[in-house]
């Protein structure tokens, strides 16, 4: 049901669909106060679009635009036609809000069901969602998709690890949606209790919501004895279900009948060559309530060249490498936190947690990385620990081109969270 011929379209057919839907998107977007002015200012109209490449003639949209249009300046339908709102927390200023019509919610659920099916989830699975519900899109977005697919769906929500584990055991949960850092935390709780995490009935995990490396995915799979599938979504594009790994686990298919994806140089805003890392820019193609045109996600990724063995022709993006606005500049060198994680998670002595601390010394930013070391390697031999410390610093220097201060700490000594891991801390 959820593997349709549309997933095997030729590129020509997919391109023609994008052109048609992009024209309709521009007509719909122009009904909003924001895009009515923005598109007129740019001198573009639906007739401007004759090929998928013509999208480059359209203006870009930013998060600041969303904030400036808050609360409803980007809505393209009367408020009586809107049935759902999701929003950022807004704790540090004006939030961003996305509003949905009934058709928007149905289309989103269908895309999410398609995504789960691609990752091997089937109607007979029992699906537990450990995401927070409410304004966050990961709760209801995943939930509606799992239900549409036909799974018995458990809205466990976030936190309360003992309850999560009880539900998993009692209802023989076979698939979970979980943040990678929380999956590792859950596994560590079981290990501390003398329980092998691989004894859980879970066979698949859908992971996302925070950037993570292939090494972290491997740790999740090894610790819990399952297959973990990467996913990508952002609230501005609905939420989860924008791009998803299939069972090949080799990049995330962007559903190109619902979105146009571009990868641009974040400084020049020109397209990068295929396979080159740049900023992902997304356009909705089927949204009624609040269509977005060329939205700058600030997420860094690349298109993976070639066709996927699964048969789907929708292009694949690589896992998110970091964010254009999360870049650290230390001693004049551009550094992304994911580069550091990539190194640390491939060192056997390193545990599951680390923190990057940024502090000032002589009016210059400096970097210190606190790294948890597995118990069997945290020995009393000071020379052995110092040698490990030097080796980690050297491996990091090879990747990020500066030598950070490295501090080795005991396993489970750094703060742990049941939500997204806070990897970078700026010290006053």
Automatic annotation (TrEMBL):
It is an enzyme of class 6 (ligase). Residues 82-282 form the AMP-dependent synthetase/ligase domain. Its EC number is 6.2.1.30. Pathway: Aromatic compound metabolism; phenylacetate degradation. It catalyses: 2-phenylacetate + ATP + CoA = phenylacetyl-CoA + AMP + diphosphate. Residues 332-425 form the AMP-dependent ligase C-terminal domain. The keyword Ligase applies. GO terms for molecular function: nucleotide binding; phenylacetate-CoA ligase activity. Keywords: Ligase, Nucleotide-binding. CDD domains: PaaK. Signal peptide: none annotated. InterPro entries: AMP-bd_C_sf, AMP-dep_Lig_C, AMP-dep_synth/lig_dom, ANL_N_sf, PA_CoA_ligase. One of its GO terms (biological process) is phenylacetate catabolic process. Monomer. Belongs to the phenylacetyl-CoA ligase family. This is Phenylacetate-coenzyme A ligase.
């Amino acid at each position: 049901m959820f593997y349709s011929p549309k997933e095997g379209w030729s590129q020509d057919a997919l391109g023609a669909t994008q052109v048609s839907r992009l024209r309709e998107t521009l007509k719909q977007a122009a009904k909003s106060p924001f895009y009515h002015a923005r598109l007129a200012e740019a001198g573009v109209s639906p007739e401007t679009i004759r090929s998928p490449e013509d999208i480059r003639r359209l203006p870009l949209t930013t998060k600041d635009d969303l904030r400036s249009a808050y609360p409803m300046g980007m809505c393209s339908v009367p408020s009586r036609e809107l049935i759902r709102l999701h929003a950022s927390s807004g704790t540090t200023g004006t939030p961003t809000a996305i509003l949905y019509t009934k058709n928007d919610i149905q289309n989103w659920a269908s895309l999410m069901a398609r995504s789960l099916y691609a990752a091997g989830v089937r109607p007979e699975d029992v699906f537990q969602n450990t995401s927070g519900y409410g304004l966050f899109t990961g709760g209801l977005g995943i939930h509606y998709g799992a239900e549409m697919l036909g799974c018995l769906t458990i809205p466990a929500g976030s936190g309360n690890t003992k309850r999560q584990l009880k539900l998993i055991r009692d209802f023989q949960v076979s698939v979970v949606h979980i943040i990678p850092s929380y999956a590792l935390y859950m596994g560590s709780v079981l290990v501390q209790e003398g329980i092998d995490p691989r004894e859980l009935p879970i066979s698949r995990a859908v992971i996302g919501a925070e950037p993570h490396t292939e090494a972290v995915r491997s740790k999740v799979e090894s610790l819990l004895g399952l297959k973990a599938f990467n996913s990508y979504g952002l609230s501005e594009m609905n939420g989860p279900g924008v791009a998803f790994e299939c069972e090949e686990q080799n990049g995330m298919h962007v559903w190109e009948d619902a979105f146009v994806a571009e990868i641009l140089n974040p400084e020049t805003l020109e397209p990068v060559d295929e396979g080159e890392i740049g900023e992902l820019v997304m356009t909705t193609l089927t949204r009624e309530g609040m269509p977005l045109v060329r939205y700058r996600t600030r997420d860094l990724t690349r298109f993976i060249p070639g066709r996927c063995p699964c048969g789907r022709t929708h292009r694949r993006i690589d896992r998110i490498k970091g964010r254009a606005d999360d870049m650290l500049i230390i001693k004049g060198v551009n550094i992304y936190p994911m580069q550091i994680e990539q190194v640390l998670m491939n060192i056997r002595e390193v545990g599951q947690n680390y923190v990057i601390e940024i502090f000032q010394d002589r009016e210059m930013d400096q970097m210190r990385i606190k790294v948890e070391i597995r118990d069997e390697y945290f020995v009393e031999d000071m020379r052995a620990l110092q040698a490990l410390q030097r080796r980690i610093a050297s491996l990091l220097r090879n990747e990020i081109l500066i030598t950070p201060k490295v501090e080795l700490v005991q396993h489970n000594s750094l703060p742990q969270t049941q939500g997204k891991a806070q990897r970078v801390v700026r010290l006053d």
